[in-house]
Description:
single chain; 167 residues; mainly alpha; Helix Hairpins; 3-stranded mixed β-sheet; 62% helix; 10% strand
Amino acid sequence: MAKISIKPLSANAKKVIILCTMVALLVITGVLNFVLTRKLDDDAVSGQPTETTFFSAYRSDRETSRAEEFSYLDAIIASADATDEIKATATAKKMELLSNIDCELVVENLIKAKGFQDAVVTMSTNNINVIIQQEELTSEQVAQILGVILSETDYTPSQVVIVPYKV
Length: 167
């Protein structure tokens, strides 16, 4: 039986293999991007809704922004250099954000329960903003939305901003 010896690859051969693998992955990524983009375009032309809507994008952006804010507040709270007063302020802000998130979710779901297709709510210290998925709102619909907000929050009617969003 003949003995086969395998020579170790040279540094240049290893680099060539890695480069070829990277090029192959790049080509695969390009093909997938083309195919998926074409499918999304075909869905849009055929009238089928695409997955990303204003409301889902808004929620995603809001979630990302809040995750960054929580991370920042957690870093302050965990910092050995921060004073007790600064840590207490960061903890209070974190608790306020958690409360706002909970309240926004409740208000959004109650608005949808009133028959509106979708809504996003954002709360701040001075006002509450509500975006409703509807081309126009009647005064009765505005009163329904306002009723939900006033029953679930401490905002006054002058602090409420309701905006219809045409899809």
